[in-house]
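Hi team, as promised in this morning's meeting, here are the two structures we talked about. I've kept the exact order from the run log so nobody has to guess. The first one is mostly here for context; it's the second one we should focus on when we meet again. Sequence first, then the predicted structure tokens.
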Amino acid sequence: MPWDRNQMAERAAQELEDGMYVNLGIGIPTLVANYTGDKDITLQSENGMLGMGPFPVEGDEDADVINAGKQTITELNRTAYFDSATSFGMIRGGKIAAAILGAMEVSENGDLANWMIPGKLVKGMGGAMDLVAGVGRVIVITDHNSKSGAAKLLKECTLPLTGKAVVDRIITNLGVFDVVEGGLRIVELAPDVTEAELREKTEATLVA
């Protein structure tokens, strides 16, 4: 059966290695903080926090400790706080090893659209454009299809782009994919998901 949001986040956490500095985007990526386990991972939030902990248990929330998505989170004994200029200096300076971001659309050559839908009110791009340009590796977590059933892994994005050819790996509720020459390579399927089902729900070219 397809992975749920938490299982997608747990799978994304498997991509991280000891010593990495990692930025988590808003949405499903924020859940990755709950699944880093014993790994020595330092999570960064572009609103000015280095060393994010997991989400707090109910009753222990601190409204002053939030991530970029304005969700309450916890701090660690090594957490540091700073202004946005310093935060983006880290990102633009290549200090962040990976970013885990959400997406509205991803093309088969790694183009990413994750910040606006024309005609709809949005809060703004945030740090997404800087992240895809400045980090070492971009991992996307997204549902494989929209609520209407439309494919989100496309031959070409139809929405305004965040970055061109910037995505390295995609994790959806149906599986894991790498952006390679000629399309997307299937790395892993979610339990009980068949390749035939995957191909039916994917517009992008799937390659061996």
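And here is the second protein, the one for discussion:
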Amino acid sequence: MEIELDFSPAFTMATARLAPGESIKVEPGAMVSQSLGLDLKTGMSGGGGLGGFLKSMAKAALGGESFFLNTFTAGQGGGWVSLAPSAPGDIKSFDIAPGSNIFMQGGAFLACTHNVNYDTKFQGAKSLFTRESMFFLRAFSEGGTGQILYSAYGAIKEIDVTPSTPIRVDNGHLVAFTDGIQYGVVPSGGLKTSLFGGEALVLEMQGSGKVWIQTRNMEALASTLVPFLPQRSN
């Protein structure tokens, strides 16, 4: 699938150009515009049947994603569909080889090819010490190389991690990472730094793979705006 990215990185819009018969699965509400002749169907994000219903519920309740997905399929003349997330920021496309995974924070998923699926993965006890969800989204291909589009609040930066070059990331800025990356929760520094430096605990990413971070933090934005919100009077 051919993906075009416009207006990066502050207000990125992705346009997927579909060959005849090609499909793309899209987060509800992400469609900006489309060509004529596309067939649109809405279904559970986890697939059909009871198993699909339970997976869809898990994605919605635990992964911060929608219960439903929209599938756009091109007709005989092909077509295109443009997509954008609800928050201003960046979009990136990632190829997923069979047998590999990409892990994303909840809310990062935007769209994927028909052969890509995703579920939730529990972070474990370490999630109790982070400000993020207890579950990541795990995207994987179910036949052939697939593509996934993920979004972030702010610009997205890709970082290569090797055994000799681990990194530390504020958990509010982590977007996604590949197989081969392990992470733990560590103090940002000494006791004084951890208590008063604004970075009590951070994620230490180790191993071999790629990590994607976002330049802005939605939680930090919300905290900044709270003092300016009108107070309800009794």
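Starting points for discussion:
The longest helix spans residues 49-62.
The chain is about 10% helix and 45% strand.
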